[in-house]
Amino acid sequence: MDRTRHNNVLKVNLREAGYEQGKAVIRNVQLQVQSGELIGLIGPNGAGKSTTIKSILGLMPYLQGEIELGGANRRYAYVPEQPVLYEYFTLWEHLRLAASAYGMREEQFEERALELLERFRLSGERHHYPVKFSKGMQQKLMLIIGFLLEPDVYIVDEPFVGLDPRATGDFLELLEAERVRGAGVLMCTHVLDTAERICQGFILINDGTVVAQGGLDEVRVQAGSSSDASLFECFRRLT
Hints:
alpha/beta, 2 domains, three-stranded antiparallel beta sheet
């Protein structure tokens, strides 16, 4: 995979990380995401994907390594697998809180927020309470908050959970637009057929360490698979 065209917006070197010293959950995890690049973080349950994401976000109690955030604004948006909601905040108040935290101008916030609400068909819910929404609607809100900020890096954890096909299409269109804008994306997912179609590169993790990394052709070689093997077939061989 050609990694010379763009600048790194995320560079990670995790020698080890865990919940207490001496009990590392992940070791020797190195990855980078470049501007305009979508990288899939792939692995079975318990492989260390969540620990890797938490390490990048600075949430692990024990960590040895370095995390470098690049880009013009040096900021990221995190879209969690499980929505994080405030019980007494309306949908609009959730968006306004995120915008305030990042210092967005009021005009910029309103224009972008209304556009995204329209895109995800949530305009009529703006003054309702998301804690009462369906799982899919709550996930849409998390995506809207991420896209609202237009960061240098997106860190997205299992974004397809709960989304219907139409919302999935909306998400993929926006993700592509952000990639074209120059944002980098690190996306953790189990939806391997979609990952194979949209990602420029992959990081496969198993038993707490990286077992393959690069474009699909490179992953095929590392997995000892045929030149036409799918990402799923490589995943099976490596994990």
